[in-house]
UniProtKB/TrEMBL annotation:
Source organism of this protein record: Citrus clementina (Clementine)
The name this protein goes by in its record: Gnk2-homologous domain-containing protein
Transmembrane portions of the chain: 262-282
Subcellular localization: Cell junction, Plasmodesma; Cell membrane
Family per record: Belongs to the cysteine-rich repeat secretory protein family. Plasmodesmata-located proteins (PDLD) subfamily.
Annotated signal peptide: 1-33
Amino acid sequence: MAAAKTKTTSTTSLLLLFSFIIVFLSIPSFSSSSSSTDSFVFGGCAQQKYTPSSAYESNLNSLLTSLVNSATYSSYNNFTIMGSSPQDVVYGLYQCRGDLSMPDCATCVARAVTQVGGLCYQACGGALQLQGCYVKYDNATFLGVEDKTVVFKKCGPSVGYEPDAMGRRDAVLQGLMTASGPYRVGGAGDVQGLAQCVGDLSAGECQDCLVQAIGRLKSDCGTADYGDMFLGKCYVRYSTGKAPNSYKDHSDKSSNEGEKTFAIIVGLLAGVALIIIFLTFIRKVFGEHGK
């Protein structure tokens, strides 16, 4: 009888240990790329509103679904959803940062679509930039149209003019300007740079946009330790070694840490609940065998 009891206790302990291993393995990992891709940069909405349950709303939902689905296999795409009348047509696109993997791209676009839907509720147009991706839709076509309007800029604190540091920064920005392709990265010493055009621009239009963005970035941010310049169809960013975060993550770290802590707590609570249910089931089974 004692041996049977010992065997039951041992089995329960092993099951408990196994359950805890499963719980800890199931807690999601949080890489720096996750926080840097999902954090908010800027967003905006059109003033014109659509009527709820209208054909435009149906077409917009279809467009947003297409954006999310397409992001699972392509880092850029655009769509035009036609309607029975001109006012029901909706245009949209998404763009992922050039270094993102397809899973990260898909996750980022899904997050952006969810956020822009809440931010621009019943608006005919909306745009949202996260660190890792960009989403835009409107009832007026913007596809293939150059747009060098400044939509967002951010400059870090000035570190004063240091010839070596500013020389490295200018060299990085010059390298981005003379490089080719819609996605460009560069670095010199402790300075990093990043530039990207939206995929609907031609090579010449992309170059024109980036030249404008780099010029504005240098003139507006001066001797700042980092700078971000987003135009309508391209952006340029740089970060020096004195910047608190790299150009990939200017987001509030306390917010990211809070999200991590919350997720871990939820995972632990869910795991404890599963363990209690599992052990109750095991106890019931062993109790029935013991009768």
